Amino acid sequence: MKKLKAFTLIEILVAMLVGSFVILMATELISYQGKSRSQLDDKQQMLAFEIALKTLRGDINASMKSADGRKNVVWSSDNNSSVTLKLNKPVYSKGLQNLEIVTVLWVFSDNSVMRSINDDLIPLNIKFKPMTHRLEKLQDDVFYLKSQSRERKFASVIDLR
Amino acid sequence: MEVLIGLTILGITLLLFWQSYNNQIQINEKLANAYAVDRLEYDVKILKEINKLNELSQNSYGKITNLTWNDAEFKGTSLGQKFTIKFK
Fold first, then answer.
1. Could you tell me which residues come within 8 angstroms of residue B71 by beta carbon, excluding any fewer than 6 positions away?
2. Residue ranges of chain A whose CB lies within 8 Å of a chain B CB
């Protein structure tokens, strides 16, 4: 009688066990990767926003002053959703080998922070999850910029003295 | 045997991948917190100067906890590390 070539029951069971283990691991990995990706995006956004706030502080501290001694920063705040700040500051120009005055515009809107210099055609624009921004007055020429997303809050003092 | 070696290599690859993700998350968190402490220091000094320290938005500075202050200094804890901001 001719002997048929085939897998034994044990081999099939082991193969099924290994196969199910691989499928389980792949499912777990896909689910974990989704969570990690969202967590990583969240942390990267947080870091990008912190760097934006630090850059804003630098811009405000370097801004030109008006005749009365206060920083010449024009601001506007739109009902808890967006804040705009416009200032002039001196920067060293490599091309001119001299100081030049540039206009810096900051726009904190519901899903991005934009910084443009001298009406850049392609300004720096950082996209964020939906956020609200408002400027609270603490005293004359000192404001508190408060930004809030669903998960996080940020606050930064804007000192225009 | 070949399948087992393949699975072991796959397992090690996944582990390294998982670890790199975790490290990236931790580095970003530490950096963001360092920037938050810097922002807090700047804000606290101005708020102290204008006598509005009580208006400090305490939950807006990342994972900074145990905030206490007096006339001379401001103390807090950032990711388990204590820090002090001295007022002039």
1. B87
2. 18, 21-22, 25, 29, 32-33, 36, 39-40, 43-44, 46-47, 50-51, 53-54, 57, 138-139, 142, 144, 146, 153-157, 159
